[in-house]
Write a structure and sequence with these properties.
The chain is 53% helix and 0% strand. The protein has 53 residues and is mainly alpha-helical. Helix 1 packs across helix 2. The radius of gyration is 13 Å and the shape is elongated. The mean pLDDT is 86.
Length: 53
């Protein structure tokens, strides 16, 4: 994928103001990092198209 739509999460977080947006984006980042670790990939730059099902 060349793009991911994460605007809705930020929009929902906006209900709580700037801290809410930051928290929503932190949650998404944590999920991405967890998925990469579960796949055995230490850095995002090492993820390739073969990882996409």
């Amino acid at each position: 994928a060349t793009v991911a739509a994460i605007g809705r999460a930020a929009l929902f977080g906006a209900v709580a103001g700037e801290p809410g947006v930051a928290k929503a984006l932190d949650i998404i980042l944590d999920e991405v990092v967890t998925c990469l670790r579960l796949c055995g990939i230490p850095r995002f730059q090492e993820a390739g198209s073969e990882m996409i099902a």
